[in-house]
Amino acid sequence: KAISGETIEKMLLQAVNFLPEKQKIVFELKYFQQKKYKEIAAILEISEGGCKASYFHAVKKVEENLKTQLNLL
Question: What's the sign of the alpha-carbon dihedral 53, 54, 59, 61?
């Protein structure tokens, strides 16, 4: 079943909205704004390792949410 780009974008944004606040900010800065971990760490005043961990967990949660959404189609 084909899914439009617009539908995928809506699903992604919906998945991102379910993230905890810090993970959401890190994900948006890294994925959408393509900032480097060093830049994100400076912006949020956290360690680079913390940024990487937050992004890793955010990606996993977004993937799980998208899989759930796709199964509902």
Answer: positive
What value, to the nearest 5°, has the Cα angle with vertex 40 and ends 32 and 38? 120
**Full-model pTM:** 0.90
Q: Which of 50, 12, 7, 52 is nearest to 32 (CA)?
A: 12
Cα–Cα distance for residue pair 12/49, rounded to 1 Å: 25
Q: Which of 61, 51, 70 is nearest to 8 (CA)?
A: 70
**Radius of gyration, CA atoms only, the chain:** 13
| One-letter amino acid of 54 | S
Res. 1: pLDDT tops 70: no
Checking if the pLDDT of 18 tops 70, the result is yes
